Amino acid sequence: PAAVHARMFELFATGRYGERGPFQIHPIHIGLIVSMGYIWDDMYEVEPNARVARALYDRSGWAPWSCSAWR
Asked: Could you report how far apart the first and last alpha carbons of the chain are, in Å?
């Protein structure tokens, strides 16, 4: 539910620190993005953005997102 809410709120948005797409992937994660076969511009696309978000979540839970401070 929280992930769906974040996706709907931030669909195709760019954050103030360069975060991209529905799950607001931060540019600090470019290494992971490339290792998964994507490029930075792919983060505006729903499916690659969601796959990277899932990989981040699997590694670190909600820590990569600022909303983790509210949990």
From this structure: 13
